[in-house]
Amino acid sequence: MAERGALHVRGARLAWGTRTYVMGIVNVTPDSFSGDGCASADDALAVAKRHVDEGADLLDAGGESTRPGHAPVDDATEVQRVVPVLRALRERYAHLPLSVDTSKVCVARAAADAGADIINCVRRAPDALLALAAERGLAFVAMHSQETPEYPGDVVDAVLRVLDECAQRGVRRGIPRDRMILDPGIGFGKTADQNVQLLRRLDRLVALGFPTLLGTSRKSTLGKLTGRPAHERAAATAATSALAAAAGIDMVRVHDVAATCDAVRVGDAIGRDWRPTPWTA
C-alpha cells in the first residue's frame, strides 16, 4: 500500500493510496433523485448520525439537487438549507471531515465559515471556487460534467484531459496536490455505456497522480444494469465501490454506507493488500 500524500483535516488523516474512504451523502433537498432528500435540518442530522454510526469517514452535505431536470435554487435558499446542518455537524463531530456539495462561491464561503473542509463541485473547477479553496486552505473536488454525452474520440481520454486541466489550474492557484481531488462524474453528461467505459478504466484516473473520488451511488446506469429502482441499488453501488477500491480510488460517495464499507474493505484487501486491525492471518 504505497501512500500518495494525505489530507490532514482537524486531526483526521486521510492517507491517499492506502485504502478507500467512504463519504456519506446528506441531501438537504426535497427533490433528490434517490428519494433520500431531507426536509429539515433535524432529518439531515439523523441521516448523518446513521452514516457515522455505520462507518463513514467523512460527510458531504448539499442544498441543491443536481439530478437531471432539477429546479435550481437561489443562493440564499441553498445557504439556508446547508449551513445550519454543517454548523450542527461540526459541533457534534469535532474531528470529522465535512464537505459541501455546491458550485456557488457564496455558498462555499458560508459553508467554510460553518466548518466545511472540502468544496465538492459538480461543475468542474470554476476559477472563483479554486481561488476560495486556496484562500481558505480547503480541499477541492473537481468533477467532470457536461450537458450532452458527445465526446471527441474516446470518452475516457476526453474526461481525463479535462480533469487533468482542472487539477493543474488548482495547483497553480495554490491548492496542494494532495488537496486537489478528481471525480469522473458518472452520470453527468454520459450515456450508460460511457459510464461503464469510465468504470472499466478507473486505473487511468488514479494514474493522473491526484486523489480521486467516485460517485456511482444509486445512479441510473445501475438501474439500467439491474432493473431496480433507485432505493434498491445498494448492492449495485457496493459492487462498483469494491471495483473502485481494487482500482485504487481514494474515496467513494454513497447513500448506503454500511454496505459500501463492507464492499471497499474487500476491494482494498484484493487491490491493495489492505487488512483491518487487528488481523490474524
SS field, number of helical segments: 10
Shape: globular
Q: Indicate the radius of gyration in whole angstroms.
A: 17 Å
Low-pLDDT runs of 5+ residues are none
Give the amount of beta strand, in percent: 15-25%
Topology:
Elements lengths: L5 E4 L2 E4 L5 E7 L13 H13 L4 E5 L12 H18 L5 E4 L3 H10 L3 E4 L5 H10 L2 E5 L11 H19 L6 E4 L8 H9 L1 H5 L6 E2 L5 H7 L7 H14 L3 E4 L2 H16 L9
Parallel strand pairs: 3-4, 3-10, 4-5, 5-6, 6-7, 7-8, 9-10
Antiparallel strand pairs: 1-2
Helix pairs in contact: 1-2, 2-3, 3-4, 6-8, 9-10
Could you give a quick summary of the protein structure above?
The protein has helices at residues 41-53, 75-92, 105-114, 127-136, 155-173, 192-200, 202-206, 220-226, 234-247, 257-272, and strands at 6-9, 12-15, 21-27, 58-62, 98-101, 118-121, 139-143, 180-183, 213-214, 251-254. The chain has 281 residues and is an alpha/beta fold.
